[in-house]
Amino acid sequence: MYYIYVLIDPRDDLPFYLGKGKGNRSETHLFPSSSDQNKYKDNIIAKIHSLGLQVIIKNLHENIYWH
Question: What is the pTM assigned to this prediction?
Answer without folding.
Answer: 0.85
